[in-house]
């Protein structure tokens, strides 16, 4: 399943950020930053590029039928004269986004041994709470979360808890906390909305924030 979850805000942000990133690469700042994050610089850049590509791919993990009442003239006729409507059966798909959930979660597993366990647990819990508070289930969209909240909150928390090496904590908490707080904790609400279509974990609505978490984690690792 393919779709483009990147908002226009993130698109223009990346366009504006591109010249800065090119300059940083030229002076090898990014190279040092990736090493401190525990990644080979070439593989690190490739990883973020693949996440961008992978954000268009959803892997279905659960499907169910939902009854949707459409408001058109034919159905309104039944409702007016017979007192009932004829629901239309559609499909609701729960999926996991490759670039917004699967790949970042795998990188978190790689980074976990490099992070203090207690700080990791605390930061994940705090960011999950923040993501839950600021996320909103939106009919026809799914989960909506302001994109700059996860990277800013996770970076500040990481700098507070592990000032000597904040990058792994910032990335782990920003990714896992967002996925738990914004997506997983809101799944029951989304399912109760009986909304047809794709409900993507790590997809549209939270991908922007998770992707920016990676960029911020690299930049604060210097």
Task: Report on the architecture of this protein.
- The protein has one domain (8-219).
- Helix content is 60%, strand content 14%.
- It contains ten helices and five strands, in the order H-H-H-E-H-E-H-H-E-E-H-H-H-E-H.
- It has helices spanning 8-26, 29-37, 41-54, 73-82, 98-111, 117-134, 149-161, 167-183, 187-192, 207-219, and strands at 58-68, 88-97, 136-138, 142-144, 197-201.
- It starts with 7 loop residues before the first helix and ends with a helix.
- 38% of the residues are buried.
Summarize, please.
Helices cover 60% and strands 14% of the residues. About 2% of the residues have low confidence.
Given the C-alpha coordinates, what overall shape results? globular
SSE ordering: HHHEHEHHEEHHHEH
Q: Give the helix level as a range of percent.
A: 55-70%
Biggest sheet details: 3 strands, mixed
Instruction: Kindly name the structural category.
Output: alpha+beta
Q: Which helices and strands occur, and which strands form pairs?
A:
Layout: H1 8-26, H2 29-37, H3 41-54, E1 58-68, H4 73-82, E2 88-97, H5 98-111, H6 117-134, E3 136-138, E4 142-144, H7 149-161, H8 167-183, H9 187-192, E5 197-201, H10 207-219
Give descriptors for this structure.
222 residues, alpha+beta, three-stranded mixed sheet, two-stranded antiparallel ribbon, 5 strands, globular
């Amino acid at each position: 399943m393919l779709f483009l979850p990147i908002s226009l805000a993130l698109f223009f942000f990346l366009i504006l950020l591109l010249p800065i990133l090119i300059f940083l690469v030229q002076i090898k700042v990014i190279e040092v930053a990736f090493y401190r994050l525990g990644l080979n610089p070439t593989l690190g850049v490739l990883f973020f590029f693949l996440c961008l590509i992978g954000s268009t791919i959803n892997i279905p993990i659960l499907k169910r039928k939902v009854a949707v009442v459409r408001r058109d003239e034919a159905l309104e006729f039944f409702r007016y004269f017979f007192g009932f409507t004829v629901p239309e059966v559609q499909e609701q798909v729960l999926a996991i986004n490759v670039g917004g959930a699967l790949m970042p979660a795998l990188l978190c597993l790689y980074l976990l041994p490099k992070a203090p366990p207690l700080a990791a647990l605390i930061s994940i819990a705090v960011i999950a709470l923040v993501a839950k508070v600021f996320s909103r289930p939106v009919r026809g969209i799914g989960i909506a979360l302001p994109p700059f909240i996860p990277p800013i909150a996770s970076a500040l928390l990481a700098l507070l808890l592990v000032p000597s090496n904040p990058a792994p904590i910032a990335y782990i908490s920003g990714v896992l906390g967002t996925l738990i707080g914004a997506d997983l904790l809101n799944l029951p609400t989304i399912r109760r909305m009986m909304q047809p279509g794709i409900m993507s974990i790590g997809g549209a609505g939270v991908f922007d924030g998770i992707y920016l978490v990676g960029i911020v984690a690299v930049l604060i690792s210097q």
